[in-house]
Write a structure and sequence with these properties.
The chain has a single domain, classed as AhpD-like. Helices cover about 55% and strands about 10% of the residues. It has 8 helices and 3 strands. A 3-stranded mixed β-sheet has the order 1-2-3, covered by helices on one side. A hairpin with a 5-residue loop joins strand 2 and strand 3. Helix 5 crosses helix 6 and helix 5 crosses helix 7.
Length: about 170
């Protein structure tokens, strides 16, 4: 279990580096979980990207869901309640919305529906996914979420929980 020792002096540079390392560890740990089906995982990730307007995340699709059309998934996530998603996936997205924006509104009915639909392990994974995909909100707020133009839209998660975007294959016209 990682713990951050609060600095006693006015120099907080080590604190920032340590916090960044712990946040990276949390992100990687959450990405290694795999109780949820890939589409639900990707929909939750995309919903986080939509809420935070993260250009990098909105431009990509996880390889686990790459057999789905990214643009269609983006459209579904934008108005999931009116979509033809099954109730299980809509519940996951309702939890994402409430957790990101109104955690005090995760009431008795939503909790009951979530526990009737998901295992505890799946609920933990959804919440950790939301936390992982939300931790870079400061970069988004500061307009530092650049979209890499030299990488493909498809990314994978390696065995350490790191995001790996593959180099784009450019057509040479040959």
């Amino acid at each position: 279990m990682s713990r951050i020792t609060l600095p006693n002096s006015g120099d907080h540079s080590d604190y920032g580096r340590e916090l960044a390392g712990i946040m990276r560890e949390l992100h990687a740990m959450s990405l290694r979980l795999n109780r949820l089906d890939p589409l639900t995982t990707e929909l939750v990730r995309m919903r986080c990207a939509e809420w935070h307007n993260c250009r990098r995340c909105k431009d990509a699709i996880w390889e686990g869901a790459a057999d789905h059309d990214r643009d269609s998934l983006v459209a579904v996530v934008q108005d999931y309640e009116a979509s033809d998603l099954d109730e299980r996936r809509k519940l996951a997205l309702r939890l994402a919305d409430a957790f990101m924006t109104r955690p005090h509104e995760i009431g008795v009915d939503l909790r009951r529906d979530l526990h009737e639909t998901f295992s505890v392990e799946e609920l933990v994974e959804i919440v950790l996914d939301i936390v992982a995909w939300t931790q870079h909100k400061p970069a988004i707020a500061l307009d530092l979420d650049e979209v890499p133009t030299s990488l493909s839209r498809i990314f994978r998660i390696d065995e350490d929980g790191d995001i790996v975007r593959q180099a784009a294959t450019l057509s040479t016209g040959e």
